[in-house]
Design brief:
Layout lengths: L2 H10 L5 H4 L3 H6 L15 H9 L6 E5 L2 H7 L17 E2 L4 H6 L2 H14 L5 E5 L1 H6 L3 H12 L3 E4 L8 H15 L13 E7 L10 H6 L3 E7 L4 H5 L6 E4 L2 H15 L3 E3 L5 H17 L6 H27 L3 E5 L4 H10 L4 E6 L5 H11 L5 E2 L4 H9 L5 E4 L4 H6 L4 E3 L10 H16 L3 H5 L15
Parallel strand pairs: 1-2, 1-3, 3-4, 5-6, 5-7, 7-8, 9-10, 9-12, 10-11, 12-13
Helix pairs in contact: 4-10, 7-9, 10-13, 14-15, 15-20, 16-17
This protein binds iron/sulfur cluster.
């Protein structure tokens, strides 16, 4: 059995995954046997998933070993921000073509690594395997090893060719590359009793920066973020953290679980979306850190900060209450947002007519039931036709979803707010709730809706507009 196959099999029976835990022993052994669609890059392939998870490491060069289309498909697909280095935004690729299929692409890869070191000299290079070199048998790991030894720069193989599976599997394979080759390879310059890791936070449109000041205010240091606005050194020294918060259970559960096993770093799953969830995170991490030697007054200081920040957020939300109370929302997202955004919107009196549970775990489902008091509004899939019908019949006043569904809403002449990874506004933390509510308010009360809902001139009754 190939190393990649073994790795995939082990990820598909990940013991930390809530979905796996809920299965019978027999079903768990069988793993997640989702039929794979090789080359289905439109929905995201495993390579795409690995790139999404790792590209936010901002100071390394991300080199895609494959045809240029793979790089084109994945470059900058999320609005992840950097507070400094911009190396991550350059698209490096070996641009494999027909001759490489015949003669192999290993020399080409080695030359590309050398060129990057000569011209950019990053602290490390991440080399992404794609379908083509995997199928012709390029030894990417061997080339990375040889180049690391020759040039003295860590060259990290990321073995997640697109055909290996889904984007989500690719996220985890990207995490495995960090666990195998990066985590624990360097020591942090110093450590504190309040060092934490954030796992599954990608700093999309700067969301990490809305939360980090809260930790700073408590003296909690984010030692490493996996991988939003991360530096190679931070990830390499992340094994010295005292605790961790896992923010997306679907993507990098393997990192959280294995770091707990290997380095005794306890973790919990939290969310930075919504006032109550943000406060919950601050409470839990403070309590967890105290068990690992942090000052005993940390929870009390966290409570004082929570009280101050919650009061400030509520005061800022007050002006939206009257405008949004009773407005009906159709939420078409997934994962942790399926429940954390629900509670955020309920906080300003909005009514949730439906929330999708795509990519959500059993834990996510339980939380929706807990927050909404019923599972009647949960749905796994909502075909575009049904979504259109709901919006057209005004069962919802606004839809929150990813960009792919926006045209259904626009066709139904219904306000729409981008909430998934292509979003342009940061929704985390106390300020994020205010941002989200402000965006919903802007969308709902935009005068364009009353105009587009007017009948078109050729649909007007006869004599309309006559003097
Ligand atoms: S890795 Fe494979 S599936 Fe993914 S974009 Fe490249 S060719 Fe397509």
């Amino acid at each position: 059995m190939s190393a990649l196959k073994q790795r995939i099999d082990s990820l598909l029976i990940e013991p930390g995954c809530a979905t796996n835990q809920a299965k019978s022993d027999k079903a768990r052994k069988e793993g997640c046997k989702k039929p794979l669609t090789p080359g289905a890059a439109a929905g995201g392939c495993a390579f795409d998933g690995a790139k999404i998870a790792l590209q936010p490491v901002v100071d390394v060069a991300h080199l895609v070993h494959g045809p240029i289309a793979c790089e084109g498909n994945s470059w900058d697909s999320r609005h992840v921000y950097s507070s400094g280095a911009q190396t991550y935004r350059t698209g490096f690729t070996t641009d494999m073509a027909e001759f490489d299929v015949i003669y192999g692409g290993e020399k080409r890869l080695y030359r590309a690594i050398k060129e990057i070191i000569d011209k950019v000299n990053p602290p490390a290079i991440f080399v992404y395997q794609t379908c083509l070199p995997a199928m012709i048998g390029d030894d990417v790991e061997g080339v990375c090893r040889a180049a690391s030894a020759k040039f003295g720069t860590p060259v990290i193989p990321v073995n997640a060719p697109g055909f290996a599976g889904s984007k989500n599997l690719g996220n985890k394979l990207g995490g495995e590359a960090l666990l195998d080759h990066v985590v624990g390879t360097l020591e942090p310059e110093y450590t504190t009793a309040c060092d934490i890791n954030l796992i599954g936070e990608y700093n999309v449109v700067g969301e990490l920066w809305q939360v980090k000041p809260l930790f700073d205010a408590l003296g909690i240091r984010v030692l490493a973020s996996f991988c939003g606005d991360a530096r190679y050194r931070d990830i390499a020294g992340s094994h010295r953290a005292k605790a961790a918060i896992m923010l997306c259970s679907q993507a990098l559960i393997n990192i959280a679980r294995k770091m707990q096993e290997r380095y005794d770093i306890p973790f919990f799953e939290g969310s930075f979306y919504g006032i109550a969830d943000m406060s919950d995170c601050l409470r839990k991490i403070s309590a967890l850190l105290v068990t690992k030697g942090a000052p005993a007054d940390l929870p009390a200081r966290a409570e004082a900060l929570i009280a101050r920040e919650e009061a400030r957020a509520w005061a800022r939300l007050e002006k939206y209450r009257a405008r949004l109370a009773g407005k009906r929302v159709l939420l078409f997202t997934g994962g942790v947002k399926s429940w954390s955004v629900v509670s955020a919107l309920q906080e300003v009196g909005m009514e949730i007519v439906g929330t999708s549970m795509r990519k959500s775990t059993q834990g996510d489902r339980a939380k929706v039931v807990e927050i909404m008091g019923t599972d009647a509004h949960m749905f796994d899939e909502l075909p575009p036709r049904e979504m259109y019908r709901m919006l057209k019949e005004s069962q919802a006043d606004v839809m929150l979803s990813g960009g792919r569904s926006q045209f259904v809403a626009l066709k139904a002449k219904t306000p729409w707010v981008e909430i998934n990874q292509e979003r342009h506004h940061a929704y985390t933390g106390y300020d994020g709730v205010v941002n989200l509510v402000a965006e919903i308010d802007k969308a709902l009360h935009n005068p364009i809706w009353s105009q587009v809902r007017q009948p078109a001139p050729w649909e007007q009754p006869e004599g309309w507009g006559a003097a």
